Amino acid sequence: MTTVDLRRATTADARDIAGVWLRSFSAALPTVRRAHDDDAVRWWFANIVVPQQETWVAVAESTVAGLLVLDGPELAQLYLDLPWRGRGIGDQLVDLAKQLRPDGLTLWTFQINEPARRFYRRHGFVAVEYTDGQRNEEREPDVRYVWSKAS
Fold first, then answer.
1. Which regions form coiled coils (predicted)?
2. Integer angstrom CA distances of residue 49 from 65, 133, 139
C-alpha cells in the first residue's frame, strides 16, 4: 500500500484534481461520451466541486494521486491518476468515505465500468438500481450502489 496524505482539497488543488479526473475518465471509459469538454470540467471543479462539495485529495510524492468527492450521503466522485492505480489509494479513499459517512453511502457508476463495479462490490457496496442512462448527461446505462455499515 502506498503512503499517502489524505486531506481536504483547497482551491489551489482544483486544476490538479480536474487533471486526474480527465485522465482517469478517458482511460477507464474510452467508449463513454463525455458531456463536457476539458475546459468545462476544469471550471466545474474550480467553481462548483471544490468550493461547494466535500472534496478530498490523496497526495503521494507531492502530487495529487486521487480524489474523493462526497455530496451528503453520495460518494459523487472517486478517481485515481493512472500511475497510482493498484497501490491501495482507492481503498484508503473508500475507507475515509465510510468513516465520514458511517450511516451509509450511495454512488452511481456506469454499467460498462466493470473494474469500478468489482472495486465497489469488494468494499461492500450492493447494486440496488440499474438504469438505461436517460437520467445522466452521458446517456450511458448506469447502476446505483449502496453501502451500509449493517451490511
1. none
2. 17, 22, 22
